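tokens incoming
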């Protein structure tokens, strides 16, 4: 996002910088308490201190999970690109199943997930909320996934980095691990204050792994490769989770209004469409109707940098980040409209010249 981090985070960082010492650091008790209290207060999730494994980022966590669990990996596309690269980098075969759009919402195709799964599959990579489609998975959907994981004895690595960014007031984030003791036992949940409080560059994240044997496997896979978490990231994490709730509530209201502006702009443009964004600051836009060979390059030529759906296993789609001031967004949406209309204008010019060529031909043959 383009926003300055919460004042409490900035104050904690200033304090740490003023102390002037930047040696290696270990998480300290008040930081661990801030994480534990935050998860209990926000999600009713009671975790133990020992379940936490600190990480420099969630992408590290995804890659470690793929190394820690021996077998094929399954995930649902379109998906944040490291979900596609982490299995490959770990030497694990990846199976993907497309999400489906039903009743105006992206959903898991449970029948296709079943069909794609056999005894070789050991790990499901869950994105919750789902980047890029912006779904906040509901309890009944998560319960179906948990049943599926239990039936095939899968470990579920749940990337819940966007859990603090639920935009719909009537919805709540439900951590996969809170569904049941059985779901908790097979879960590795990846979390961070980074997206919600706009501090991803500080590199501080965590995995919550209740099952001791699974946690040992995860820790062994990261041994000697994953560095210490930097002390500024740890200080920011504590202030974010403990002291920045009010800032986050204001952020959510601002992002929800941005989301509505994006939805209205997309609805008014020819050849493009999107489904409601329930969570995240990302809009997933279907531009296949524009018939462009390279949509990302077309929009970039109109001054708009969008993520290319091809990287998410969905060519023909684009992802727009609306975590920015309204003035930036309005300019972005102006360029978006111009980029869409230039295609329909070109198409009608082509149609008009084709029509007049036909008319000329008809005249000359008279
Ligand atoms: C779903 C998801 N996971 C992980 C990350 C990145 O995590 P990190 O920067 O902690 O590696 C992102 C960033 O966009 C993301 O959207």
């Amino acid at each position: 996002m383009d926003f300055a981090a919460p004042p409490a985070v900035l104050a904690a960082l200033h304090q740490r910088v003023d102390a002037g010492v930047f040696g290696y650091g270990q998480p300290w008790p008040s930081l661990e308490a801030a994480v534990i209290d935050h998860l209990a207060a926000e999600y009713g999730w009671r975790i133990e201190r020992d379940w936490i494994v600190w990480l420099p980022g969630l992408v590290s966590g995804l890659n470690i999970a793929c190394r820690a669990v021996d077998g094929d990996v399954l995930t649902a596309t379109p998906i944040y690109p490291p979900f596609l690269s982490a299995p490959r980098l770990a030497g694990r075969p990846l199976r993907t199943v497309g999400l489906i759009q039903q009743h105006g919402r992206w959903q898991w195709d449970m029948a296709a997930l079943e069909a794609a799964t056999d005894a070789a599959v050991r790990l499901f990579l869950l994105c919750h909320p789902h980047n890029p489609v912006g779904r906040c998975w509901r309890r009944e959907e998560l319960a179906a996934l948990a049943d599926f994981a239990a039936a095939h004895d899968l470990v579920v690595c749940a990337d819940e980095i966007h859990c603090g960014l639920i935009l719909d007031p009537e919805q709540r984030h439900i951590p996969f691990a809170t569904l049941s003791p059985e779901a908790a036992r097979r879960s590795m949940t990846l979390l961070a204050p980074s997206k919600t409080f706009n501090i991803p560059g500080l590199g501080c994240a965590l995995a919550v792994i209740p099952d001791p044997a699974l946690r040992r496997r995860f820790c062994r896979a990261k041994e000697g490769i994953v560095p210490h978490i930097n002390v500024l990231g740890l200080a920011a994490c504590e202030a974010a989770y403990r002291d920045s709730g009010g800032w986050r509530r204001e952020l959510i209201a601002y992002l929800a209004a941005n989301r509505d502006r994006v939805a209205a702009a997309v609805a008014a443009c020819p050849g493009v469409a999107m489904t409601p964004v329930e969570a995240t600051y990302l809009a997933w836009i279907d531009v296949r109707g524009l018939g462009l060979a390279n949509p990302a390059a077309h929009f970039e030529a109109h001054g708009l940098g969008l993520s290319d759906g091809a990287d998410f296993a969905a060519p023909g789609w684009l992802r727009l980040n609306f975590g920015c001031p309204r003035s930036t967004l309005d300019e972005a949406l102006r360029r978006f409209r111009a980029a869409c209309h230039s295609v329909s204008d070109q198409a009608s010019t082509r149609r008009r010249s084709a029509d007049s060529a036909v008319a000329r031909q008809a005249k000359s043959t008279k």
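note: The first strand starts at residue 52 and ends at 55.
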